[in-house]
Amino acid sequence: MDDRQRMRKVWEYIFQQAVTDDSDFFIDLDGDSMAAAALVHHVAEEFGVSLPLFEVFDRPTPAELLAAVRDQLAVG
């Protein structure tokens, strides 16, 4: 499973629906602050990086959030 699929899996778990596009918007999936906190938590479990909560709102798609994860991994 590649990173894109892993990120989609996290989003699907949080929103309990298929995420078929890497550009699905957090708010369009009825995302709120509780969902954002859950995303940050599950992203940390899945990818081993700790993202600040604001990243979910600044990068509100699976593709953009994956870019934030990759940025964190590059920093170390």
UniProtKB/TrEMBL annotation:
The keyword Phosphoprotein applies. It comes from the Bacteria. Keywords: Phosphopantetheine, Phosphoprotein. Pfam families: PP-binding (PF00550). Residues 1-73 form the Carrier domain. InterPro entries: ACP-like_sf (IPR036736), PKS_PP-bd (IPR020806), PP-bd_ACP (IPR009081). This is Phosphopantetheine-binding.
